[in-house]
Amino acid sequence: MNRIQMCEHSPECSNGVSCQLVLENGETGLETAEYYCKAHLVLRIWEVENDSSMRAVSAEQL
Which pTM value belongs to this model? Predict the structure, then answer.
């Protein structure tokens, strides 16, 4: 499921505020950026904290 589409169709995300989350893969060391509304950013950070193979590097409002 594409989280960005989920955010675009969710009433909690209709305020137009978007955030960037940078994740690091603990196995490869590669960093990736993901984009969410504020409401889904919190959920995604919770998911990452429960995944030992990923680490949140930074999160910021765009």
Answer: 0.74
